[in-house]
Design goal:
alpha+beta
Protein backbone atom coordinates (compact mmCIF):
# COMPACT_ATOMS: atom_id res chain seq x y z
CA UNK A 1 0.00 0.00 0.00
CA UNK A 2 1.19 3.48 -0.93
CA UNK A 3 2.01 5.68 2.06
CA UNK A 4 -0.05 8.90 2.38
CA UNK A 5 2.02 12.03 2.34
CA UNK A 6 1.10 13.93 5.54
CA UNK A 7 2.13 17.24 4.08
CA UNK A 8 -0.26 16.79 1.14
CA UNK A 9 -3.02 15.69 3.54
CA UNK A 10 -2.63 18.85 5.61
CA UNK A 11 -2.82 20.94 2.45
CA UNK A 12 -6.08 19.20 1.50
CA UNK A 13 -7.74 19.31 4.93
CA UNK A 14 -7.04 22.98 5.64
CA UNK A 15 -9.14 24.39 2.74
CA UNK A 16 -11.90 21.87 3.50
CA UNK A 17 -12.14 23.16 7.08
CA UNK A 18 -12.50 26.70 5.82
CA UNK A 19 -15.33 25.66 3.47
CA UNK A 20 -17.16 23.74 6.22
CA UNK A 21 -16.93 26.67 8.65
CA UNK A 22 -18.14 29.11 6.00
CA UNK A 23 -21.13 26.89 5.14
CA UNK A 24 -21.99 26.61 8.82
CA UNK A 25 -21.94 30.39 9.29
CA UNK A 26 -24.08 30.85 6.16
CA UNK A 27 -26.63 28.39 7.52
CA UNK A 28 -26.82 30.20 10.85
CA UNK A 29 -27.31 33.56 9.11
CA UNK A 30 -30.06 32.14 6.91
CA UNK A 31 -31.93 30.75 9.90
CA UNK A 32 -31.68 34.06 11.74
CA UNK A 33 -33.07 35.92 8.74
CA UNK A 34 -35.98 33.49 8.47
CA UNK A 35 -36.82 33.99 12.14
CA UNK A 36 -36.69 37.78 11.79
CA UNK A 37 -39.01 37.66 8.79
CA UNK A 38 -41.50 35.56 10.72
CA UNK A 39 -41.48 38.08 13.56
CA UNK A 40 -42.02 40.92 11.12
CA UNK A 41 -45.00 39.20 9.56
CA UNK A 42 -46.60 38.77 12.97
CA UNK A 43 -46.25 42.52 13.55
CA UNK A 44 -44.58 41.92 16.90
CA UNK A 45 -43.23 45.49 17.21
CA UNK A 46 -44.32 48.88 15.98
CA UNK A 47 -41.38 49.27 13.62
CA UNK A 48 -42.13 45.99 11.87
CA UNK A 49 -45.82 46.90 11.69
CA UNK A 50 -45.16 50.31 10.13
CA UNK A 51 -42.78 48.82 7.57
CA UNK A 52 -45.60 46.65 6.27
CA UNK A 53 -47.83 49.59 5.36
CA UNK A 54 -48.17 49.29 1.60
CA UNK A 55 -50.78 51.82 0.53
CA UNK A 56 -53.67 54.09 1.39
CA UNK A 57 -57.24 53.59 0.22
CA UNK A 58 -58.35 57.04 -0.94
CA UNK A 59 -61.80 58.24 -1.93
CA UNK A 60 -62.30 61.17 -4.30
CA UNK A 61 -65.47 63.11 -5.00
CA UNK A 62 -66.63 66.04 -7.05
CA UNK A 63 -68.43 67.40 -4.05
CA UNK A 64 -71.57 69.32 -3.28
CA UNK A 65 -72.13 71.71 -0.36
CA UNK A 66 -75.64 72.42 0.86
CA UNK A 67 -77.63 74.24 1.97
CA UNK A 68 -76.25 77.26 0.17
CA UNK A 69 -76.13 80.72 1.75
CA UNK A 70 -77.84 82.41 3.49
CA UNK A 71 -77.71 79.04 5.31
CA UNK A 72 -74.35 77.87 6.61
CA UNK A 73 -73.55 75.48 3.74
CA UNK A 74 -72.06 72.95 6.10
CA UNK A 75 -73.36 69.65 4.66
CA UNK A 76 -70.67 68.01 2.50
CA UNK A 77 -71.78 65.25 0.12
CA UNK A 78 -71.05 63.71 -3.26
CA UNK A 79 -72.98 64.49 -6.41
CA UNK A 80 -71.40 67.84 -7.24
CA UNK A 81 -70.48 69.24 -10.64
CA UNK A 82 -67.27 70.79 -11.97
CA UNK A 83 -66.26 72.52 -15.22
CA UNK A 84 -63.06 72.96 -17.20
CA UNK A 85 -62.45 74.82 -20.46
CA UNK A 86 -60.52 73.76 -23.55
CA UNK A 87 -57.19 75.40 -24.27
CA UNK A 88 -56.90 77.70 -27.29
CA UNK A 89 -54.17 80.23 -26.55
CA UNK A 90 -52.99 82.06 -23.42
CA UNK A 91 -54.69 85.29 -24.54
CA UNK A 92 -57.76 83.66 -26.09
CA UNK A 93 -59.12 80.79 -24.02
CA UNK A 94 -61.67 78.64 -25.79
CA UNK A 95 -65.36 78.80 -24.90
CA UNK A 96 -65.64 75.02 -25.26
CA UNK A 97 -66.13 73.28 -21.93
CA UNK A 98 -66.55 69.91 -20.27
CA UNK A 99 -68.90 69.35 -17.35
CA UNK A 100 -68.09 66.46 -15.01
CA UNK A 101 -69.64 64.68 -12.07
CA UNK A 102 -68.21 61.67 -10.29
CA UNK A 103 -66.48 59.90 -7.47
CA UNK A 104 -64.64 56.70 -6.67
CA UNK A 105 -61.69 55.16 -4.85
CA UNK A 106 -58.10 54.23 -5.63
CA UNK A 107 -55.28 52.44 -3.86
CA UNK A 108 -52.26 54.74 -3.62
CA UNK A 109 -48.91 53.01 -2.91
CA UNK A 110 -46.88 54.70 -0.17
CA UNK A 111 -43.77 54.59 -2.35
CA UNK A 112 -45.48 56.68 -5.03
CA UNK A 113 -46.36 55.67 -8.55
CA UNK A 114 -49.61 54.45 -10.02
CA UNK A 115 -52.10 51.71 -9.35
CA UNK A 116 -54.67 49.70 -11.29
CA UNK A 117 -56.73 49.12 -8.14
CA UNK A 118 -59.35 51.75 -8.89
CA UNK A 119 -63.08 52.10 -9.31
CA UNK A 120 -65.61 54.82 -9.93
CA UNK A 121 -66.48 57.29 -12.62
CA UNK A 122 -69.27 59.69 -13.42
CA UNK A 123 -70.95 61.65 -16.19
CA UNK A 124 -69.59 64.04 -18.80
CA UNK A 125 -70.98 66.67 -21.12
CA UNK A 126 -69.15 68.77 -23.72
CA UNK A 127 -70.30 71.93 -25.44
CA UNK A 128 -68.90 75.01 -27.14
CA UNK A 129 -67.91 76.42 -30.54
CA UNK A 130 -65.74 74.27 -32.77
CA UNK A 131 -66.21 71.07 -30.80
CA UNK A 132 -69.01 68.50 -30.85
CA UNK A 133 -71.78 68.68 -28.28
CA UNK A 134 -72.24 65.34 -26.59
CA UNK A 135 -72.73 63.66 -23.23
CA UNK A 136 -72.42 60.30 -21.56
CA UNK A 137 -70.57 58.49 -18.79
CA UNK A 138 -66.95 57.67 -18.03
CA UNK A 139 -65.09 55.21 -15.84
CA UNK A 140 -61.71 55.36 -14.13
CA UNK A 141 -59.21 52.76 -15.39
CA UNK A 142 -55.98 53.63 -13.56
CA UNK A 143 -54.33 55.88 -11.01
CA UNK A 144 -51.37 57.68 -12.58
CA UNK A 145 -50.27 59.64 -9.52
CA UNK A 146 -51.47 60.69 -6.06
CA UNK A 147 -49.85 63.50 -4.10
CA UNK A 148 -51.01 63.77 -0.48
CA UNK A 149 -50.47 67.24 1.01
CA UNK A 150 -52.01 67.06 4.48
CA UNK A 151 -55.18 66.29 6.38
CA UNK A 152 -57.66 69.14 6.47
CA UNK A 153 -58.02 71.06 9.69
CA UNK A 154 -59.91 73.93 11.23
CA UNK A 155 -63.21 75.48 10.12
CA UNK A 156 -65.64 74.97 8.56
CA UNK A 157 -66.98 72.14 10.71
CA UNK A 158 -68.62 70.11 7.95
CA UNK A 159 -71.44 67.67 8.40
CA UNK A 160 -69.61 65.13 6.26
CA UNK A 161 -71.97 62.68 4.57
CA UNK A 162 -69.22 61.08 2.46
CA UNK A 163 -66.81 59.63 5.05
CA UNK A 164 -65.04 60.43 8.33
CA UNK A 165 -64.78 64.22 8.60
CA UNK A 166 -61.38 63.83 10.29
CA UNK A 167 -59.99 61.99 7.24
CA UNK A 168 -60.53 64.81 4.73
CA UNK A 169 -57.32 65.38 2.78
CA UNK A 170 -55.75 68.06 0.61
CA UNK A 171 -53.74 67.03 -2.43
CA UNK A 172 -54.07 66.11 -6.08
CA UNK A 173 -54.60 63.00 -8.18
CA UNK A 174 -54.27 62.16 -11.86
CA UNK A 175 -56.51 59.37 -13.17
CA UNK A 176 -56.82 57.68 -16.55
CA UNK A 177 -60.43 57.54 -17.70
CA UNK A 178 -62.39 55.91 -20.49
CA UNK A 179 -65.45 57.62 -21.98
CA UNK A 180 -68.43 55.60 -23.11
CA UNK A 181 -68.00 56.79 -26.71
CA UNK A 182 -64.64 55.00 -26.91
CA UNK A 183 -62.34 57.97 -26.36
CA UNK A 184 -59.82 58.07 -23.55
CA UNK A 185 -58.36 60.83 -21.44
CA UNK A 186 -57.16 61.98 -18.06
CA UNK A 187 -58.95 63.45 -15.08
CA UNK A 188 -56.96 65.71 -12.79
CA UNK A 189 -58.43 66.48 -9.37
CA UNK A 190 -57.11 69.09 -6.95
CA UNK A 191 -58.44 69.73 -3.47
CA UNK A 192 -57.48 72.91 -1.59
CA UNK A 193 -59.48 72.70 1.63
CA UNK A 194 -58.97 74.09 5.14
CA UNK A 195 -55.30 74.05 6.14
CA UNK A 196 -54.01 73.32 2.63
CA UNK A 197 -50.53 74.58 1.71
CA UNK A 198 -50.25 77.12 -1.09
CA UNK A 199 -50.10 75.92 -4.67
CA UNK A 200 -52.98 73.42 -4.88
CA UNK A 201 -55.74 74.14 -7.40
CA UNK A 202 -59.31 73.46 -6.26
CA UNK A 203 -61.30 71.86 -9.07
CA UNK A 204 -60.76 69.55 -12.04
CA UNK A 205 -59.04 69.43 -15.40
CA UNK A 206 -59.54 66.78 -18.07
CA UNK A 207 -58.68 65.64 -21.55
CA UNK A 208 -60.88 63.78 -24.02
CA UNK A 209 -59.08 62.39 -27.00
CA UNK A 210 -56.87 65.19 -28.33
CA UNK A 211 -58.89 67.97 -26.67
CA UNK A 212 -57.33 69.38 -23.50
CA UNK A 213 -59.75 70.92 -21.04
CA UNK A 214 -56.88 72.23 -18.98
CA UNK A 215 -58.31 75.58 -17.93
CA UNK A 216 -59.83 74.62 -14.60
CA UNK A 217 -62.49 76.71 -12.91
CA UNK A 218 -62.28 77.71 -9.25
CA UNK A 219 -65.36 77.60 -7.02
CA UNK A 220 -67.21 80.81 -7.98
CA UNK A 221 -68.24 81.68 -4.43
CA UNK A 222 -70.19 80.38 -1.47
CA UNK A 223 -73.55 80.97 -3.17
CA UNK A 224 -72.79 78.67 -6.14
CA UNK A 225 -72.44 74.91 -5.72
CA UNK A 226 -69.80 74.12 -8.38
CA UNK A 227 -66.15 73.14 -8.85
CA UNK A 228 -65.55 71.68 -5.40
CA UNK A 229 -63.64 68.48 -4.72
CA UNK A 230 -62.73 66.38 -1.71
CA UNK A 231 -60.44 63.47 -0.82
CA UNK A 232 -60.83 61.13 2.15
CA UNK A 233 -58.16 58.72 3.39
CA UNK A 234 -60.45 55.78 4.12
CA UNK A 235 -57.79 53.52 5.63
CA UNK A 236 -54.21 52.32 5.40
CA UNK A 237 -53.53 48.95 3.80
CA UNK A 238 -50.76 46.54 4.76
CA UNK A 239 -48.97 44.23 2.35
CA UNK A 240 -51.53 41.44 2.71
CA UNK A 241 -54.46 43.78 2.03
CA UNK A 242 -52.72 45.26 -1.00
CA UNK A 243 -51.86 41.84 -2.44
Amino acid sequence: MKKINRTNLKRLVSPLCVVVVALGMLSLWHNAEANNNKKGKKGGDSEGSNSRKAADLVRWDIASIAPLPPADGSVLSGGGVAFAFAYNSPTNPSAAWIRLTGGGTFVAPVNGGGSSTVNGGGTWQTSGPGLPEASGSYRVTELVNWQFANLQSGPPAFNDRIADVNKRANGNAVLLIEYDDGTEGILGIGCHGPGAPNGIFEGVIASKGHVTYWNGVLPPGPAVDQNRTIFHILRSLDCDDHD
